[in-house]
Design a protein that fits this description.
By secondary structure, the protein is an alpha+beta fold. It has 4 helices and 4 strands; from the N terminus they run H-E-H-E-H-E-H-E.
């Protein structure tokens, strides 16, 4: 789901190239007003979204997601992330996300250090550290 029709067009093209187009659906929609019924999904997942919003906006997004899913899983870049992809990312620690989202009683942790993080860290001449944070919420 995305508000940007162009982004969804690119996503559809990528699914045709790399995936099974029959198993993926795309919706133009607003994350602040999700168009789904209560508990319509077992899991709502986002990657690379919350770090672009203020703390209050992130909580509003999670309230929406929690209303339509039994569990919410979010991936955000950590302080260790080596670059700014769009320039407005908030790169925070797990403890900061834990505090911001405390009303949801989230489980927040670094991802296990994976091969890609190690490879990219070494290529950038950095000490390998986990690049992403995993946030789990069960409403």
């Amino acid at each position: 789901m995305d508000l940007n029709v162009k982004t969804l067009r690119i996503a559809r093209e990528n699914v045709k190239k790399f995936g099974d187009a029959g198993k993926v659906g795309f919706i133009v929609g607003d994350v602040f007003h999700l168009p789904f019924r209560s508990k319509a999904f077992d899991v709502a997942f986002s990657q690379g979204l919350l770090e672009h919003f203020s703390s209050d906006e992130a909580k509003q997004i999670l309230r929406e997601a929690s209303a339509c899913a039994r569990a919410v899983i979010v991936s955000v870049p950590s302080l260790n992330y080596p670059r700014r992809d769009l320039g407005d990312e908030r790169l925070l620690s797990p403890a900061s996300w834990q505090e911001i989202l405390r009303e949801f009683k989230p489980k927040v942790r670094y991802y296990v250090l994976d091969f890609q993080s190690i490879k990219n860290s070494l290529l950038a001449k950095r000490i390998p550290k986990p690049w992403h944070i995993l946030i789990k919420i069960r409403p």
